[in-house]
Batch of 3 targets.
Target 1
Amino acid sequence: MSDAPHDDARDDTLGDALPDADILKALAPYAAKGGGAAIGGARLRDVKRRQLLRCEVTRFTERRHETPRTAFGTEDLTALPLYEGAITDHPLPAPGGPGRLTLIRAGSYRPVPCPCDNGQQQCAGCSGSGGHPCTCRNEPPPCDVCLDVAPCAECERTGRRRTRTAKARPAATGPGATAPGTGRITCAVCSTPEAACPRCSGRGRIRCPHCEGRGRETCARCSGRGVGTHEVCGGKGSLTHWVEGTVEYAHETASLSLPKPDWPDKVRDRLTAAARWQPHDVPAGDTVPAGVDGEHRTAVATHLARGRVELSREVRLETCPLARVELMDDPHRVFHVFPGARSLEVVPTLSHRLKRRLIAAGAVIIIVVVLILWLLA
């Protein structure tokens, strides 16, 4: 790889791409206010030239991996090709494009029976019993409607009617209660009509909603069967082990843009839309082309370095000169000049000096306004 050119050679190269005479001609429409004469060489105060570079490398890569695999049951892998030894050493025909190949290492295929009961095992949630004792402990829970109100206005859960007539009391108020004054239903204990709570029918307790009064809940994990699927084999009763080799072919694109932009957005946008970029051929061995500026050569050389998994590549490398120009009689503007499709493009921007003055003037105005408001308050 050639050494970086001397700075003088760099200046000469960029000067040839953007000579002062061409820059002056491009700046002629931007003469001083009042229709001054064409810009002359004496009016150039400062010209700084830079080389813009963009490089895109699309690499066609090959990546190989070996992975131990396990599947539930008996896996049919007869359609996959075999390879001997390490996948990295296995010869393969040239690929036609991006894709993925899957291979099996010879001798690695091994079906193994699982030490379970044909894919079943005792349920760990209920220890094979199929259920759990209910939290109600076989005691019906109190009615959540009548609560402290008599479940039956006639017999009070005794089954014996009172000797004197008692007016049926309404169910208790609450989220699940019937509205006050609502008539009751026939008691299931003493058969008195319109005397019992409509929720518990005069019993004072209700059937447990979890166990339906059985005192035992069904195990949700095994649905009461007492056995469940063996997780090790997925319920298949056997396992298959093998070593899988994969080969992946892909196009991987990497881009490089130099230098880091430090110009206004309007310059960047115009460079993107109108700049004429000069393409460069990358020599054999992927060395840096001679037309690349010295400050970029190290970065470009690193970007062009070949990878271990790279099979082939496509490289697009382009450069464009950019001049930053200041004029003697126009201290408030800076001109960015670069080659366009037909002629030099010029993008004027405010100078740093003018920006600082505008910021300072804005700050003074704000201070004055604040003082006036303070005096008027």
Target 2
Amino acid sequence: MTTTTNATVPAQQPAPVPHHFLLTLQTGDGRIFTNDGVVQVIPDIHTRMDTLKAVRDQVMQQWGLGGQSIVLFFALEPNQL
């Protein structure tokens, strides 16, 4: 007698792709901060908005900023030439 099992193979998650970002924020008291760096983005998982929020939170923490800030500029491109 043979038994058949319908086992599912987990789908492989796409590999992270390094992206370069440039972000400029303005705080409620008018100070302006610009930062750049590289962030790992997983295609079909992370959205541009997810990435912006993660980068903004990272930059605000790095600069010791609390409260509200507005995004004056955000660029996100694959980190390749």
Target 3
Amino acid sequence: MNANNFRLPARRLATVAAATALAAGPASLAHATEDQGRASAVVLRTGLNVSLLNKSVNVPLAVALNEVQAPQSAEQTALTAKLDGVDGGKPFTVLGAEVAEAKATVAEGRAEASTTLAHAKLHVPGLPLLSLIEVEQVTSKATCVAGEKPVASANLLGSVTALGKKVTLTPSGPVVVKVPAVGEVRLALSQTETTTRTAAATALELTVSVNPLDLNVAEVEGTVTLAKATCEAPAVQGAPPASPAPASDVKPQGAPAEAGLAETGGGSMTPYLAGGALALLAAGAGAVALARRGKN
């Protein structure tokens, strides 16, 4: 009777310990991710919709070039982004550049991201010969150091051409370029934002509405982001963990044709998942030992 009465609490103990370990796992993982900081960078991200044949066919054009994320230090330098299925079945080059770099690092209380894009031409379906935009060089950088104020910067170096027209951009506000029978592009220059622990910088943000020759052969609408960097500072040693940061940008739905264009990162969760498994094993072993004592 005594053995049976003791065995039941032992089993309950094992169940409670396992449940506690499972519940604590995600929380511990979240705190660990926040503590070490985060950084991300992307050279190009498109959120466009291409309408063909008088809007009878809609094709989302979602491409990311050189998108990287840390805690894992990462770097990408692919120079072109291509998309299949929007140009008569042939690969369509969305962006070509001489330099296209994105870096993200998190180490020793510091999270940092940066991008550089130089001598780049961006095209959309329906305008194979006319660039949507051409830039000589744009850069962005975000730096977040534990216990310090984050810093964000974005720079436009050299000229910008939109729909064949040279554009002069100023920090005072966006510029709209309109071309009859082609469409319009709205350009916003050098956007930066900082909080107590985060920073974000975008070199160029474009809002696009293109309908070549008003023939409804290919109508393109949406947004394009060039050279974006973000970071979140690691927690100060000894400070209580901060509440979770707001969700970041939605990831692109489409996938670039080249393997080098895919996003990297995500493996940093593995050690914490392994730690949760060890906690479960330890809890089970303790409960079994306690049950055996009850038998003796």
